[in-house]
Amino acid sequence: MAANTEQAVQSVTVIGAGPCGCAFAADLASRGRSVLLYGHPDHRGALPMIESNDCWLNSDGAITGRFRIKTTSDMYLAIQHSRFIVITVPSYGQDTIVRMLSQFDLRQHTLIMNAGNFFYLAARQNLNAHAIMETDISPYAVRITGDTVFVKGSKKSLAIWMEPPTNQVERLSPQSDINLRHNVESIFSLQLVWCQNLLQVGLNNINPVVHCPAALMNTGWIESTTGDFYFYAQGMSSSVSKVSEKIDQERLAIARAYGLDLVDINTYMNKNYSHDRQFRDYHDFAVGSVIHNKTKSAPTNMKHRYLLEDILYGMVPWFELGMKCGLTSPTIRSLIEIASVVSGFDYFEQGRSLKSAGLGESTKDDVLMALGGPIDKMPSNPLPPLVDTPLQTPFPPHPVMPTPQIAA
Fold first, then answer.
1. Superfamily of domain 8-196+381-407
2. What is the DSSP string of 252-315?
3. How many CB atoms lie within 10 A of CB 173?
4. Interior CA angle at 29 toward 27 and 33, to 5°?
5. Every domain range in the chain assigned CATH 3.40.50.720
6. Among the listed residues 148, 149, 115, 111, the one whose alpha carbon sits nearest the alpha carbon of residue 127
7. Cross-strand partners of 144
8. Residue 356 gets which letter from DSSP?
9. pLDDT for 7
10. Bond from prior residue into 115 cis (ω within 30 degrees of 0)
């Protein structure tokens, strides 16, 4: 968290009104921040629920209270509200948000993609933001039930990465880098672990390890019960957990090939979710996690984000990164191929590939440099200072909406 209150960000825009976005809004509002929650006009998420409650957001669980939230489906107003924008849309909605944000001058804005899933690969050539950051995973285990956001729990820490500077003239002062990081830390209510390379964040996202094997190996149960079972305690049996652990071993091998030393999934879970005991292995975690078994949480069908997000935007780039190092990652590849059969389209072709980011023909070293460089040779790359003053750069014209919609 921020080192002192003087560097605390007072207003934040949250893009994405799903469970994570609502939890983020409640968390920020509970700490006295001014929050504007944006929902796409065609996918407004929980905005109607909040607006029907006179713009009060009900939250229960780890974040309890009733919070006043501003809402809008006008991206222009969302950008005006704050220079700090947290994006919480699922990965398959990120390209839409990038296209919308590309219409605006964002040179005074900091974008924080939560969770990233290599968001920077899509944004690096399309947005002129002051800074682009992404985290490895969502801070919250959360569901929306009725008119209430139920926050089952939150993690203890998040890995976060900030893009390397492209304009050395503008980015000179080491103190400005510290100021920016403190600003961002004040937005989160948990510890941020700053990474030097995007691969540290993208390969540290354990969601594909957790979700994909269990979803694919429980296809019959999901389709016959529409997800009426405990995804963790029942769906992650001993055998399913072995596949997750094998996926995790291949993930760690890819990380080591790029010079990264990441923790295994069981260590990660013990660090973030243990209570009165340590989990012996991954299966022990799946059965014993109090947070993850508060609700059933199983996908209701095989078009769930556990496949569409975690394979398309997680496993596919993992596999390609491994291939750059001569690693075939057979279990990861097998799951991608099985998911392609189940979903009826080629995940390799549709996923977030290095080719789509202009890195298809790049060598391993080229990819490493484009995403931050070797972690043991990283130069200090500060950003220009941010001060709490009104925006000075005028916004470009934006598409006219029938009525600019903002609810206070």
1. NAD(P)-binding Rossmann-like Domain (3.40.50.720)
2. HHHHHHTT--PPPHHHHHHHHH-SSS--SSHHHHHHH-TGGGSS-B--SSTTSHHHHTTIIIII
3. 12
4. 115
5. 8-196+381-407
6. 111
7. 149
8. G
9. 63
10. yes
- Strand order across the beta sheet in which 148-154 lies: 65-68, 56-61, 148-154, 140-145
What is the CATH code of the structural domain delimited by 207-370? 1.10.1040.10
Residues in the chain: 408
Query: Which residue in this structure is represented by tokens 């849309």?
Result: 89
- Pairwise CA distance, residues 349 & 367, whole Å: 19
- Residue 52's closest CA among 42, 63, 41, 44? 44
Per residue of the chain (408 residues), what is the pLDDT tens digit?
A: 444 445 689 999 999 999 999 999 999 999 999 999 999 999 999 999 999 999 999 999 999 999 999 999 999 999 999 999 999 999 889 999 999 999 999 999 999 999 889 998 888 778 999 999 999 989 998 999 899 999 988 888 899 999 876 543 355 467 788 889 999 999 999 999 999 889 999 999 899 999 999 999 999 999 999 999 999 999 999 999 999 999 999 999 999 999 999 999 999 888 877 666 789 999 999 999 988 888 898 999 999 989 989 999 999 999 999 999 999 999 999 999 999 999 999 999 998 888 877 888 999 999 998 888 887 644 333 323 323 223 333 333 333 333 334 454
CA dist 404 and 170 (Å) reads 34
Question: For residues 239 and 362, is the Cβ–Cβ distance under 8 A?
Answer: no
How buried is residue 178: exposed, middle or buried, by Cβ count under 10 Å (0-12/13-18/19+)?
A: middle
Give me 329's structure tokens.
């990652």
Phi, psi of 330, rounded to the nearest 5 degrees:
-60, -35
- In the block, tokens 């929650």 appear at 37
Amino acid of residue 25: A
For residue 297, the 8-state DSSP code is B
Among candidate residues 297, 206, 288, 310, the one with its CA nearest the CA of residue 251: 206
Q: Evaluate whether 140 touches 149 at the Cβ level (below 8 Å).
A: no
Nearest to 317 by CA among 264, 370, 266: 370
Token pair listed for 167: 């304009």
CA–CA gap between residue 378 and residue 373 (Å, rounded): 6
H/E segment holding residue 322:
helix 316-323
For the chain, residues classed under CATH 1.10.1040.10 are 207-370
Q: What is the Cα–Cα distance from 72 to 93, expressed in whole angstroms? A: 17
CA proximity to 82, closest of 34, 130, 45: 34
